[in-house]
Design brief:
Number of helices: 3
Strand content: under 5%
Shape: rod-shaped
Structural class: mainly alpha
C-alpha cells in the first residue's frame, strides 16, 4: 500500500523528466538582430516654413516624400524580420 502511494507520487516526476528532452529550449534559439540599415531611425520631416520660393518648397516637399517612402520600406522590412522571428520561435 505504501509502495503504491509512493509510486503514484513519483510517476509525474518521472514523466516530466522523461519528456524534458522532447520540449524545445529557449536557450537553443538564436535570433540575429535586424540589419542596421532597416533598424535606423527615419529622417525628420523637411521644414517648409522658412522657404520663400515655390521651387525651394517643391524641393523640400520632394525630399520629404522620398524620406517617407524610405521609412515605409524600412518598416516593411522590419515587419518581415519580425515575422521571421515569430516563425523561428514557433518552429514552423
Amino acid at each position: 500500500m505504501m509502495l503504491t502511494r509512493l509510486t503514484i507520487a513519483i510517476c509525474p516526476v518521472w514523466l516530466l523528466i522523461s519528456c524534458g528532452g522532447l520540449t524545445p529550449s529557449a536557450d537553443k534559439i538564436r535570433i540575429a538582430p535586424p540589419d542596421t540599415a532597416i533598424a535606423s531611425l527615419c529622417a525628420s520631416p523637411a521644414p517648409v516654413a522658412g522657404l520663400t520660393t515655390q521651387g525651394q518648397q517643391a524641393a523640400a516637399w520632394r525630399r520629404d516624400r522620398i524620406n517617407l517612402r524610405v521609412c515605409a520600406d524600412r518598416q516593411a522590412a522590419l515587419v518581415g524580420w519580425a515575422a521571421g522571428v515569430v516563425e523561428a520561435v514557433s518552429g514552423q
